Design the sequence.
């Protein structure tokens, strides 16, 4: 059996859960797929999940699971997974997954392969593809030791709409769990956003984004000029904002803004997955990078492999004509 | 406060990977190495907490002999001493093994606070800090962007997706995984580099018989996206051709 652990917040399902269910269905090859949904009150979300063609949706409900804490989830899920005895436990590689699954896998003494993009049969078992070395290499990894094996999948590894729906809703059951509040050591407060953002990059038609290839804060002036020449907003990868060279509100990626402009020009950005998830929906993507192997070229429509300090001035001149 | 900071030595960002003969690992000897980026932020946060609350900062790394270089660098930036779990194989080990080795060396130290980076730039497991917390029996919080400590308790700001945050409180001892950008880094001064020469790096062996929970069958270069049109030529020529295509083909201008 393959068990997917879906994620919800305040009764709203995280879309990446559907992606993981799609992968589980593709992996199953005749084995049943079950979906577990942990939380405080998960009835409506469980019904939503029951639309998928799966053997069962399992509610893991307890008042101590709301709000989410890694201690609470580890206690509840280690008990339920022990009972259900799946072969694989699959999850989307969200921030919440990163926060508790290593603990859960370690508590159970089981393998955890993270951030996978694909699976394939390998001598009777399954091997999972995961990026390593900042996406410069892809590893084929096999989990070792006793089942269950925990595997997390990168956001976007499958399409949410690839989930096979059932003819009738799947059975929804509840597995009782006991979680002692006193055993939970983290006290979370309510999520919040920082002060209202002054720029809304999601509305920009064109964006010129600059990465660490720009080298220094002084050189940002060059990027500004490129942006002006394109009639574009200036944005950046995370390290530029980390260094304080541009405000956080101009950061594109999983921890920043998600944008889909008509034109996205990436200057000296390597194309880490956390950056790509924020911009790969752009209509036309241009990448300028001196490393012809940089992962950014995998999502670009047009690429120039070269030194941005030579290409940017030429572009400004050309656009000015 | 007795603070541990876990630091991994990883290949530099500019490094172009080359594979070993069996294509199961990189050619270690070809790479140049540096401190894993989020670990530098974890170290800085540790040093700031020490400046505020007193105590000591102990940097810990599991790695081959060459990993001593990042420990020296951390000592030069202001860490007080170092623990090096020295093992030639551990650079390629999984988080299960690395945390066993680190925990064995760290347990007796009774740290109040353990800081790690949120992810390594080479293997990128995003597991080590959290598993270490489990092995040390401490509570944890991940992807931390601010740390407040007072009266044996912590209040930390955890990054969530898409620009959201959340404060989490817990008592010490605890483990935090630190996100890049939490602070502004300091660099080693000449005085720091001189002082580091006198600081202790305690070497310990990794426990025998640790068993991995995952194995790399093979490493590959990523498959090339077929759709990218690469534009060749000198800067002027390439710029002209790009602008033409953006105007005429993509209609993006
Ligand atoms: C939980 C988490 C969340 C994250 N969130 C985000 C996020 O929201 N947004 C984000 O961007 N990142 C995010 N990151 C960080 C991400 O993993 C990468 O580290 C980051 O995107 C790298 O930024 P970069 O491409 O600018 O730098 P690098 O990876 O250092 O790349 C610099 C590039 O510039 C090129 N270059 C250098 N010199 C030149 C030159 N002269 N001309 C042309 N090219 C040149 C190099 O070849 C290289 O490809 C996150 C990471 C984690 C773990
Ligand atoms: N071999 C190691 N020695 C010391 N710290 C490590 C080691 N491996 C990982 N870490 C720490 O754990 C964090 C997460 O690494 P990882 O789980 O590999 O993504 C890193 O940022 C380091 O702080």
Sequence:
């Amino acid at each position: 059996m393959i068990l997917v652990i879906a994620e919800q917040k305040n009764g709203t399902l995280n879309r990446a859960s559907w992606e993981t269910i799609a992968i589980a269905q593709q992996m199953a090859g005749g084995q049943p797929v079950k979906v577990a949904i942990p939380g405080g009150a998960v009835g409506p979300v469980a019904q939503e999940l029951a639309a998928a063609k799966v053997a069962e949706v399992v509610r893991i409900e307890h008042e101590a699971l709301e709000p989410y804490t890694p201690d609470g989830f580890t206690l509840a899920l280690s008990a339920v997974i022990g009972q259900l005895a799946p072969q694989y436990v699959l999850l989307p590689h969200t921030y919440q997954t990163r926060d508790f699954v290593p603990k859960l896998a370690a508590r159970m003494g089981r393998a955890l392969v993270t951030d996978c993009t694909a699976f394939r049969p390998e001598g009777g078992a399954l091997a999972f593809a995961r990026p390593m070395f900042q996406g410069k290499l892809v590893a084929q990894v096999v989990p070792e030791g006793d089942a269950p094996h925990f595997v997390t999948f990168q956001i976007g590894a499958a399409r949410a709409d690839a989930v096979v729906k059932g003819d009738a809703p799947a059975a929804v059951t509840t597995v009782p769990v006991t979680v002692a509040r006193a055993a939970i050591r983290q006290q979370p407060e309510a999520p919040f956003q920082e002060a209202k953002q002054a720029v809304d990059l999601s509305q920009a038609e064109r964006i010129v984004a600059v990465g660490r290839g720009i080298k220094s804060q002084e050189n940002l002036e060059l990027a500004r000029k490129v942006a002006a020449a394109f009639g574009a907003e200036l944005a950046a990868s995370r390290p530029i904002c980390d260094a304080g060279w541009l405000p956080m509100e101009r950061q594109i990626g999983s921890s920043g803004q998600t944008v889909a402009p008509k034109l996205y020009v990436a200057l000296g950005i390597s194309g880490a997955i956390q950056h790509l998830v924020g911009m790969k929906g752009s209509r036309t993507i241009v990448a300028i990078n001196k490393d012809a192997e940089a992962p950014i070229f995998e999502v670009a429509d047009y690429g120039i492999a070269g030194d941005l300090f030579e290409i940017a001035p030429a572009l400004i001149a050309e656009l000015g004509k | 406060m007795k603070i541990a900071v876990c630091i991994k030595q990883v290949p530099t960002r500019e490094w172009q990977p080359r594979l070993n003969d069996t294509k199961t690992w990189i050619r270690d000897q070809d790479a140049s190495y540096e401190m894993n980026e989020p670990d530098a932020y974890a170290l800085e946060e540790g040093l700031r907490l020490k400046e505020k609350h007193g105590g000591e900062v102990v940097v810990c790394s599991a790695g081959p002999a060459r990993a001593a270089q990042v420990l020296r660098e951390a000592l030069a930036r202001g860490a007080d001493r170092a623990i090096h779990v020295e093992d030639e194989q551990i650079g390629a080990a999984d988080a299960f093994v690395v945390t066993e080795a680190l925990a064995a060396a760290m347990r007796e130290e009774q740290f109040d606070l353990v800081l790690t980076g949120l992810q390594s730039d080479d293997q990128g497991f995003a597991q080590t800090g959290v598993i270490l917390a489990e092995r040390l029996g401490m509570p944890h919080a991940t992807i931390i962007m601010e740390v407040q400590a007072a009266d044996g308790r912590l209040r930390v700001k955890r990054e969530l997706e898409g620009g959201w945050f959340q404060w989490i409180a817990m008592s010490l001892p605890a483990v935090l995984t630190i996100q890049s950008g939490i602070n502004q880094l300091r660099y080693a001064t000449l005085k720091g580099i001189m002082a580091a020469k006198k600081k202790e790096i305690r070497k310990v062996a990794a426990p025998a018989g640790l068993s991995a929970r995952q194995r790399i069958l093979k490493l590959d270069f990523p498959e090339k996206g077929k759709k990218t049109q690469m534009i060749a030529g000198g800067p002027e020529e390439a710029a002209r051709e790009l602008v033409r295509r953006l105007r005429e083909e993509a209609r993006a201008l």
